[in-house]
């Protein structure tokens, strides 16, 4: 009888020890899971930052203004095209990441702002960028979105002096517009990649 009690007592002690070890292992496992989740989040953020930094990125706080010969983005002169009745300006091509470009609305009508297929920039800027089926642009005179010469939807149009921004997500292939930092309701999907940001002004002495 005494031997049975001793054996039972030993088993209870072993069970208690195993229970303690199991609880300690669960705590350690929870800590490791938390650390793993934190590291995973950091890696994802770093990957996104790498994608953004791979190519020329136009920062959201850069304001572009018209001048007689060119306009500037981040201190770099971008290309300007003149033709009968039209003035076109565009940036370097981009193919990855999220890019935003902002301009200050000059208060004159007939200005298109958005993106174009990088491979067809020169051709369509010469004849009016909004006529291209691979354009995604917004008009400052009425707020309508234009592609292939047609307007599918209407946002609030930018008033004189307001900051007018276009943000292209080249992974999702979307183009959203902002007026003084406020995102507008209507946007483009399936935008071309690679693309250029473009300003197309009709009969503008800029």
TrEMBL record:
Top-level division of the source organism's lineage: Eukaryota
Coiled-coil features, chain-numbered ranges: 1-49
UniProt keyword annotations, A-Z: Coiled coil
Protein name, per record: Uncharacterized protein
Organism annotation: Blattamonas nauphoetae
